[in-house]
What we know:
Strand content: under 5%
Structural class: mainly alpha
Shape: elongated
Largest sheet: none
Amino acid sequence: MADLPPPETLAAEFDCLMARAGIRVPGTRRAAALASYADLRGQLAMLHCRYSAANEPSNVFRLSPMEAK
Length: 69
């Protein structure tokens, strides 16, 4: 997993983002939400380092099978 900041820094970042979004996380759920945030942040860092923007598809297509007549 990608390097994460120290736990205190990560908690402060989480609190700042929640405050900016106007989300109040109850104290009983803060530890679980913070753990989820740390995991998501690590996963996003791995995804962004994997490919350059040139490798991203410009369009996404969904092809549905044709119904039989």
